Amino acid sequence: MYNIPQGVGIGISLLKHELEKIRKHKLVIALDGHSSSGKSTLAHNLAQLLSLNHIDTGAMYRAVTLYLLNNDIDITDKDKVSSVLDEIDISFQREQDKCITILNGKKVEEQIRTMRVSDHVSDVSAISAVRSHLVHLQRKMAASDSVIMDGRDIGSVVLPDANVKIFVSASLEIRTERRYQELLDKGVNITKEEVAKNLAKRDHIDSNREDSPLIQAEDAIFLDTGSLDQGRMLAEAVKIIHSQTA
Description:
The protein is of the alpha/beta class.
């Protein structure tokens, strides 16, 4: 039996052969991509389908950013940021097939998805001390069981020996529309232009930072999610995983 994510249409019978072969392997899946490309949703759905631990590294950087903002710590003061990292405890908790981010014992899944955090997370992620601290935690999380980890430097830096690497992206226009609709659904009062500006800024910072920039690992398979719904995205990813574990 396979746990098909709720609301996701997928011709699972057509993929049964691939899934049976995939299940025979210990899976370490590195899933990288741009903001709002669908990688977190895809990682969540793959985790459910294949019974994998899901580690959302973007949520970890957002949690650090939230902590700094809530404690009035200047994110441009790298020494100060570095000095408080040991005060930050991040973990994940599964609730009704959802992965909830826990920051110092409190659920912060909603807070870390706000534009307040989105406007600063790429700047925080570019701080080498933050990246070093979280990469260490991420590798510890992925050390034992089969796992899918999504982020921006997973295949290239965090898990370079992952046996499956996928790089997902879509055009800025499509990603803007997705993020805009997501925020509207949450009742956030924002313009599409503001969303596009935020994503373009994050793309630039993520791709041009000195420490672990967003790149497609040489052995990663590219997946354009622009024209794919969740079901087709999941089906294409399963085919890629099968090809890389065959």
